[in-house]
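Bit of a strange request maybe. I'm writing a small parser for structure token strings and I need a real example to test against, not something I typed by hand. Could someone generate the tokens for this chain?
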Amino acid sequence: MKDFYCVLTFHTTHHALNTEKVLKEKNIPVKLMPVPRQVSSSCGIAAEFPCESREKILKLCKEYHIEFDDVHQIQNDKKSNWFAKWISTSK
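Reply from user aminoacidic:
Good idea to test on real output. This should exercise your parser:
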């Protein structure tokens, strides 16, 4: 399991979907997800990506005029990952 991951947050769903399309066309792994609660309690869509791709993604966002709110690095809280605990104890 990763210790951390990065996300882009957006002002609109349209911007999130456009970002996903561009990054997939450039073969950059991306996954749309709800905004992590560590970032905001409001609902919305974020794009998860490998942190090592951060600079490349920011360059593409500028090149393709992609609007985003912010970039965040999210630390996985292994203590509160109830699903992983459930999987390991149910084997």
